[in-house]
């Protein structure tokens, strides 16, 4: 068990240092990371040494007992044969039988060792298998959402992460079909949680969420995933071309992918890439900027043709040209659909029909940008800080 657990720690330390390499470098914590890695390796080495000493002792003990038994039989048998109480043939038969007896005993010590490893592995498998799914698909008993722009209805929705404090409190909001909503608020106010509940990545702790009047918990996953598409904050890209990343395992024709970029006003951007649609995006999309990765995700969402689009804007800085492109793409993408964008940029909030302002898990203001900006309150304050950041050159 011990080496197995330590092995996991080691794996975690190694993978974090590889995956988080850029973060580690940018914070200049290479030394601390190296120390942590050394500690994990040392602890794994100790655990492995202990385990091997144990199994070696068991193996040697088995061999020793076998050897002693053989020696005793040989000595006693020779004495018996010498005193004519046993024939030579009987002695040889005994020696053969002793071999038959000690071999399995030695094998047993090895098997016991293997068994320990197997049990530890099996426990890990059971742990994973027993992890309950956070949300369950109602399956064939579920209903399908009717087609067309979706209405969203939050009724007294509360949410807390397991063992944590409430993150959403009594959220009751209605979103009309085809309206474009921007959700804004300080970091930690619950915006991403709101989006995750909406797309049923989690279920609320209290209250009900209805899409088109239907409780989302009763909607079949297939129908939900086809009608509601979420563009996450940091979309995952595979180490492949732009084209394959937009296709994402489907067999959408190349021309359709190209025209998706055209429809979203991203032609010029695509032409500017070294090989257009065939440009490799690099590992996890590292050859593209965070904003450009979202453009790829927006094209993917466009081809999925959802009726409700949920967008969690990338928080990372986006250069002004990319910001304009995202805004334009988002405009075309949300046309005729209900869309809810978690906004980190003024342009998104300004372009929305209505802004929902969140503060510590509650919706504290709601209305069009032009109205909210004209009155003192959380939105005006947030807007002022955005402007100040922009002037300071931070976005
Ligand atoms: N997976 C999680 N487990 C526990 N707490 C979380 C988790 N994700 C977010 N939180 C907490 O929930 C609160 C709201 O987070 P979030 O919805 O991500 O806010 P926002 O998107 O507005 O920054 C924060 O206090 C955050 O620390
Ligand atoms: Mg967030």
What do these coordinates show?
By secondary structure, this protein is of the alpha/beta class. It has two domains: 2-130, ABC transporter type 1, transmembrane domain (ABC transporter transmembrane region fold, Up-down Bundle), CATH 1.20.1560.10; 139-391, Rossmann fold, CATH 3.40.50.300. The chain is 54% helix and 15% strand. It is built from 14 helices and ten strands. The protein has helices at 2-19, 21-26, 30-82, 88-130, 191-198, 221-227, 242-247, 254-263, 267-272, 290-304, 320-334, 346-351, 369-373, 378-391, and strands spanning 152-160, 166-175, 180-185, 206-211, 214-215, 228-231, 308-312, 338-342, 354-359, 362-367. The strands form two sheets. Strands 6-7-8-3-9-10 form a six-stranded mixed β-sheet, sandwiched between helices. A hairpin with a 2-residue loop joins strand 4 (206-211) and strand 5 (214-215). Helix 1 (2-19) runs antiparallel to helix 3 and helix 10 (290-304) runs parallel beside helix 11 (320-334). It starts with a helix and ends with a helix. Residues 191-192 line the site of magnesium ion (MG).
């Amino acid at each position: 068990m011990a080496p197995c657990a330590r092995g996991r720690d080691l794996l975690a330390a190694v993978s974090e240092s590889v995956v988080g390499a850029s973060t580690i470098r940018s914070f200049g914590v290479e030394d601390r990371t190296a120390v942590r890695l050394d500690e994990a390796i040392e602890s794994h080495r100790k655990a492995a040494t202990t385990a091997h000493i144990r199994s070696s002792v068991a193996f040697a003990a088995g061999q020793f007992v076998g050897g002693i038994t053989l020696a005793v039989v040989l000595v006693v048998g020779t004495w018996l044969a010498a005193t004519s109480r046993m024939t030579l043939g009987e002695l040889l038969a005994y020696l053969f039988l002793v071999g038959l007896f000690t071999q399995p005993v030695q094998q047993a010590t090895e098997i016991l060792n293997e068994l320990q490893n197997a049990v530890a592995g099996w426990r890990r498998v059971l742990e994973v298998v027993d992890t309950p799914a956070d949300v369950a698909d109602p399956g064939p008993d579920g209903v399908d959402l009717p087609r067309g722009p979706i209405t969203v209805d939050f009724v007294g929705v509360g949410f807390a992460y397991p063992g944590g404090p409430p993150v959403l409190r009594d959220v009751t909001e209605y979103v009309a079909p085809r309206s474009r909503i921007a959700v804004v608020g300080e970091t930690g106010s619950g915006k991403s949680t709101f989006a995750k509940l909406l797309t049923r990545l989690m279920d609320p702790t209290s209250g009900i969420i209805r899409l088109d009047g239907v409780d989302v918990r009763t909607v079949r996953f297939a129908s939900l995933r086809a009608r509601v598409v979420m563009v996450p904050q940091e979309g995952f890209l595979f180490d492949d071309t732009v084209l394959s990343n937009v296709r994402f395992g489907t067999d959408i024709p190349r021309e359709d992918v190209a025209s998706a970029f055209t429809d979203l006003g991203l032609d010029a951007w695509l032409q500017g890439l070294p090989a257009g649609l065939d440009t490799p995006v690099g590992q996890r999309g590292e050859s593209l900027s965070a904003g450009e990765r979202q453009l790829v995700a927006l094209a993917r969402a466009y081809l999925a043709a959802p009726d409700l689009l949920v967008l969690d804007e990338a928080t990372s800085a986006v250069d002004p040209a990319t910001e304009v492109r995202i805004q334009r793409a988002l405009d075309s993408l949300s046309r005729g659909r209900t869309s809810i964008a978690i906004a980190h940029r003024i342009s998104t909030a300004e372009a929305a029909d209505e802004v929902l302002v969140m503060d510590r898990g509650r919706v504290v203001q709601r209305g069009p940008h032009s109205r909210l900006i004209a009155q003192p309150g959380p939105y005006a304050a947030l807007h002022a800080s955005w402007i100040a950041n922009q002037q300071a050159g931070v976005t």
